[in-house]
Amino acid sequence: xxxxxxxxxxxxxxxxxxxxxxxxxxxxxxxxxxxxxxxxLYMRTGVESIxxxxxxxxxxxxxxxxxxxxxYKSVTIHGLASIEPExxxxxxxxxxxxxxxVGGAFYLRTASGAVEQSAEVTLxxxxxxxxxxxxxxxxxxxxxxxxxxxxLLPPWV
Length: 157
Hints:
By secondary structure, the chain is an alpha+beta fold. The chain is built from 4 helices and 7 strands.
């Protein structure tokens, strides 16, 4: 994918998988909501979460964002994570992005208290290296039409 294509892909609504390195150097993978803006990924997490502790110890991270529907696409970003104070309004922006206006407002009023266990920080990852996959060009037209129809048909068809 070109830079414009992968940036457009990241602007879509996908759940990312953040890879940090644990204390023993082993990868720790965590699904996480994100916002791609100003050529950086912004993610919220608890100040004492495993993600934040790992990123404090070793800033090297990778983030994979994929489309789980065929034909498959993915963008994997390698970079350094910086931990910044909670960015004002980021909670509302991300909640609306994933849940819509009504769901996002409901989440902020009710569910966020159950999910957020401590003060929040913002993890910011600026891409140093980007690896992409897009299997769309290899999928023949008849296959693409079938995949489109599958999105509209009941799952048992």
